[in-house]
Every structure is written in structure tokens, then in C-alpha cells.
């Protein structure tokens, strides 16, 4: 870029002080600083956009290569599966003739109807005798059951 040394900066500042004047110099310097900051931000945004577009192009190329590789693998799998199916059918047809018939048994059913439900170890007659609750009551049912009745 521009090579600005200390000597050149001093010459520029002296000329600016003479031409612009000491009253307007701070305002002009502030304006020049803001313009330079805006220019730097604009250049940085352009660089970032170029980098993003380059990355996007690279990602598109990678996506295409992965898709072609997946298609190749899929084709090889399908061709291998067809060969395997043919060999399997040949092998099973020859093996079926050599094997005896296997008897088919009915599906097993557990003798209890509700065998998955856990049953308590304490008998219900013992719970009834000692006043242990065997059924859960909701809060509203409990209030209705134990609320004292008003006699009119």
C-alpha cells in the first residue's frame, strides 16, 4: 500500500494545519478517520464474502464427489445382492431336498391369564383384617369418603 513514514506524516500535518486552519482541523481529522474506518469495514466485508463463496464452491465439489461415490457403492451392492440371491436360492433348493420335514409346534401360552401383572406377597384377607388399603383413592374420593356428613 502507501508507504507513510514519520517524515511524510509530519509534512502532511503541517500542510493540513496551514491550509485548513487550527479551528477546523479536529473536525476534518474526525471525518477523515470515520471515512477510513468505513472503507476498512467495506474491504473486510468484501474479503469475507469472497472467502464464503470460495468455501461454498469447495463444498459443492465435495458434495458431488460424495454423491458419485455413494452411487457407485449402491450399484455394487445391488449387483452383489443379485448374485447372492441367485447363489442362495441354488444352495437352499439343493439343501431343502436333503433335509427332513421339521414339525411345527403351536405357540406357547402361559397358563395364567395375567402373568405379567405383579402380585403382592401379602394376602388380601390379611390386608382387609388389618385395615391396609388395597385400592388407591384419588384425592377427591378420599375427601368425599372421610368428610363428616352434615345432618339437616
Automatic annotation (TrEMBL):
<keyword id="KW-0653">Protein transport</keyword>
<dbReference type="InterPro" id="IPR003369">
    <property type="entry name" value="TatA/B/E"/>
</dbReference>
<comment type="function">
    <text>Part of the twin-arginine translocation (Tat) system that transports large folded proteins containing a characteristic twin-arginine motif in their signal peptide across membranes. Together with TatC, TatB is part of a receptor directly interacting with Tat signal peptides. TatB may form an oligomeric binding site that transiently accommodates folded Tat precursor proteins before their translocation.</text>
</comment>
<protein>
    <recommendedName>
        <fullName>Sec-independent protein translocase protein TatB</fullName>
    </recommendedName>
</protein>
<comment type="subunit">
    <text>The Tat system comprises two distinct complexes: a TatABC complex, containing multiple copies of TatA, TatB and TatC subunits, and a separate TatA complex, containing only TatA subunits. Substrates initially bind to the TatABC complex, which probably triggers association of the separate TatA complex to form the active translocon.</text>
</comment>
<keyword id="KW-0812">Transmembrane</keyword>
<dbReference type="Pfam" id="PF02416">
    <property type="entry name" value="TatA_B_E"/>
</dbReference>
<keyword id="KW-1003">Cell membrane</keyword>
<comment type="similarity">
    <text>Belongs to the TatB family.</text>
</comment>
<dbReference type="InterPro" id="IPR018448">
    <property type="entry name" value="TatB"/>
</dbReference>
<keyword id="KW-0472">Membrane</keyword>
<keyword id="KW-0997">Cell inner membrane</keyword>
<keyword id="KW-0811">Translocation</keyword>
<keyword id="KW-1133">Transmembrane helix</keyword>
<keyword id="KW-0813">Transport</keyword>
Amino acid at each position: 500500500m502507501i508507504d507513510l513514514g514519520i517524515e511524510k506524516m509530519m509534512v502532511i500535518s503541517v500542510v493540513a494545519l496551514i491550509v485548513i486552519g487550527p479551528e477546523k482541523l479536529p473536525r476534518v481529522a474526525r471525518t477523515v478517520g470515520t471515512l477510513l474506518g468505513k472503507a476498512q469495514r467495506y474491504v473486510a466485508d468484501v474479503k469475507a464474502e469472497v472467502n464464503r463463496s470460495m468455501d461454498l464452491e469447495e463444498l459443492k465439489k465435495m458434495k458431488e464427489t460424495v454423491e458419485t461415490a455413494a452411487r457407485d457403492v449402491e450399484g455394487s451392492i445391488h449387483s452383489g445382492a443379485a448374485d447372492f440371491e441367485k447363489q442362495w436360492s441354488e444352495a437352499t433348493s439343493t439343501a431343502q431336498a436333503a433335509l427332513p420335514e421339521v414339525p411345527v409346534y403351536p405357540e406357547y401360552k402361559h397358563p395364567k391369564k395375567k402373568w405379567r401383572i405383579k402380585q403382592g406377597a401379602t394376602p388380601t384377607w390379611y390386608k382387609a383384617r388389618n385395615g391396609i388399603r388395597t385400592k388407591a383413592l384419588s384425592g377427591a374420593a378420599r375427601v368425599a369418603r372421610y368428610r363428616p356428613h352434615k345432618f339437616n
